[in-house]
Structures are given as C-alpha cells and as structure tokens.
Hints:
Layout: E1 7-12, E2 15-20, E3 27-30, H1 33-53
Antiparallel strand pairs: 1-2, 2-3
Pfam families: UPF0150 (PF21748)
Protein name: HicB-like antitoxin of toxin-antitoxin system domain-containing protein
Amino acid sequence: MIQSYTAKYIKIDAGYMGQLIEWPEVVTEGKDLEECRQMLRDATQEMVLAYQQQYKEIPLGNSLIEQMPVEVNYVGQTT
C-alpha cells in the first residue's frame, strides 16, 4: 500500500532539514533540497520497518497544509 505524507523543508546553514508533518520523529538533513528529499524518503522507509518490527501503529498520512496569513505588529515598529 502507498501512503502519502506531508514533508516540511526548512533552509538551514548546512543545507535543508526535512521532517514529516504527520510523523515528526522522521527528520533528516541534506546539503540541498533534492538530497534532503531522498534522505527523508529513506528515513521514512526505515521508520516503517522499525515500527513494523515493534508492532507499533504507523501514523496515517494525507494531512492538508495551508498558509494562514496573520497580521503581526511588533512593538516599536512603525508602519
């Protein structure tokens, strides 16, 4: 069965950090976005195997992520 997960990527000094939204324990880093994606896929497959061996429930995927605009006024900031 194919399960889809939602990946979040953050630019860091060393490249990119990737993490699954639905499964926050799956996190990795790569020197560029493509390497980070591949490493995140590999880490996810390893976690699936580990969870299966431990008879743990594998988190469900298919989250919906959206941008939510919020007005933020900083103290001392002029507009």
